[in-house]
Batch of 2 targets.
Target 1
Amino acid sequence: MLISRRQLLTSSAIGLASSMFGLACVRRADSFPCDLTPEQTEGPFYPVDRQLDEDNDLTVVSGKPGRAEGQIIYIRGQILDGHCRPVQGTTVEIWQATARGRYNHPRERRNSVPLDLNFQSWGRAVTDQEGQYLFKTVIPGQYPAGRGWIRPSHVHFKVVGSTHHELTTQMYFVGDRYLESDFIFQNVPRAERYRVMVERQDPGSEFEPETGLYNFDLTVRPTT
Ligand SMILES: [Fe+2]
C-alpha cells in the first residue's frame, strides 16, 4: 500500500514548504474533496512515433544490450479522482529527456547532445485495483529551452482514461536550481506547486539500494 500524498507531505520538506505558502487556501467553486493536480503544458515533445518497447521500464530498450545512462530512479504513485476514489485500469504515460538532457523526437533539432539509444524515451503503465502505477527511469537532464532559459529536470505525465478527463502535467524535483527561473513551473499557482514536486525517498528493500524512489500521486477530474 502506497503512502498517500497527504501522508507524505506531513513529514517532508515539501510539507514544510506547503505550510509556508499557506495551502489552507480558499476552495474554488469547482473544488473536490481531493484537490485536482494542476495541469501544465504538454510541450513540444509528446511522442509521435510508436516504439517497439512501450512498457514502464525506460532504462532498457527491448532488443538492445545496453542500459540507459544516468541515475536510475523509480517513480510510483496513485491516481485518484476528485472524489478521492482510486482510478483503476487507467493509462499513465510519461516522456522525458535523457540523463544528458536530450529528447528523442523529430522536433528536437537544436540540441547537440547525443542521443542515448539505450533509453526508452517514453513509456506507459496501467493502474492496478488501487489506482497505483510504477515506472523505472533515470533522472532527466536539464536542457536549454530558449535564450537564457534552462528547463529544470522534469518528467511529463499524461493520464488517459474513460472515467475521467485527460490530465497532462509535469513532475519536478525538489531543490532543482532552475525551478525559480522556469516559466512553466512558475506558471503553476504558487499554492499548488508542491503538488507537482517530488523528493527522493529511500528505496528500501523493495528496490535496488543505489536507486532513488519518488512518489507522485495525481488527482484527475472525474467525468461523473
Ligand atoms: Fe520537457
Target 2
Amino acid sequence: MKKADIRRIVEKNITDVKIIDIHTHLFPASFGELALWGPDELITYHYLIAEAIRATHINPSKFFGMGKAEQADFIFKELFINRSPISESCRGVLTTFSTLGINLDSMNLDDFRKFFSKITIKEYIDKVFDITGIEKVVMTNDPFDKTEVAYWVNDIEIDKRFISALRLDILLNDYQTARYELIKMGFEVGRSLNGIAKREIIRFLKENIKKTNAVYMAVSLPPDFKMPGKTIRNTLLEECVFEVAVELDIPVAFMIGVKRNVNPDLQLAGGSVGKSNIESIEYICQKYPKIKFMTTMLSRENQHELCVTARKFNNLYLFGCWWFLNNPVLIEEITRMRMELLGTSFLPQHSDARVFDQLIYKWKHSKKIISKVLIDKYEDLYDTGWPLDEETMKNDIVNLFGRSFYNFLKLKL
Ligand SMILES: [Zn+2]
C-alpha cells in the first residue's frame, strides 16, 4: 500500500459502512405522531429555537404562542435569510435538504416543503436509512410516557431496524412522580423505599425490558450526580437498576452533565451543561465489574478524564459526542483524543436524532470528521514503517460505526 492509498481506502469504507446509531429519540412509523420528520420539525428543533430567540430578542412566550409552521417561518427568515446560517444547527438543515436533492437556490422554505409533501413517512424513513447507510437505530423508550406506552401493546410488531433502550430518567431524577405513576400501574411502592418497594421497582424494570426487548437501560443525569452517597437516586441505582443489570446482563448507559431548565422560559431549549464528577464513574466501574457501563459526558472539560478512566476499566464503553459537543471543532478534538488514548475501543458518534431528517446531516458531518482523523492516524502509522492492511482498516471502521457496540453487548447482528 502506498501512503496515497490511505485516503481512498478510508473514504471508501466510511462511505460504504453500515451504521448502528446507538442513541436516538426516533420512533418507527407505526408510532404515529411520535415519529417526527420534515422541515417544520427540523427547523423548530430546540437547537434552532434557542439560536433564534437569542438572535432576535423575541419574547419567548410570543415565540411559543405561534403554531409550528409559523415558528419555522420565523426561524427560517431570521436565521437563514436575515443572517448567514453558519451555526452547526443551521448548516445541518441545509446539508439535509441538499443531500435529499433539494435545490437551495430559491432560499424559500415553501419550495423546500414541497419535496416532503410528495412522500410518505414510511418512504422517507427508507430513504433516510438508505442515504446515511444506517442499518439500525436505538430508540429511547420511556415507560412513563403515556403516549408512547399506548403503542407498546402486546402483539406489537416493531420495524426491525429500531432497537429499544429503556429510559430511566423519571424513575431516577423525579422519584416522587415515578412513584405516583407506579402506584397507578399497580406496583406496591409505599412512602418509603423499603424492601417491598425495591422488589416492585425491579419487577417494573424487568417487565419493561421484556416488553420492549430493550438492549440497555439509560439515564441522563445532572452535573451534580455523585456516587456513592445517600440519595434516593443512588439507592434506586445500586439496589434496583444494578440488580437488574447483573441478573439480565444488560448494560446501563449514563449520560451525564445536563442541567435542565437553566432558562425555563425557553422550555426544551432551556437546558444547559455543567462539568460532572468523574469519581462517580470510577466508583461504579470498580464496584460493579460485572456490569457494562456505557457513558457519555456533556461537558468538554470531562472528556480527557473520561478517556483515562476508560483505559482503567474495560466495563466502561465510551460513546458519542453528545448535544453541545456535536459540533465539528469538538467532534474532531474528542475523536482524536479518544483514538490516541483508546485505539479503536470506543464508539465515536451517535446522532441523538429526534427528527429523522437530523440523521442525514449529523452522520454526514461526523463521517467527514472521523474520516479526516482516521486518515491522519493511518498516515502516522504508515510513517513508522508498519505495513497497513486494507482488511484490518475496513474492520476498524466497521467497529467504529457500530459493530463494537454489538460486541460489547455480545449481540449478533
Ligand atoms: Zn438523547
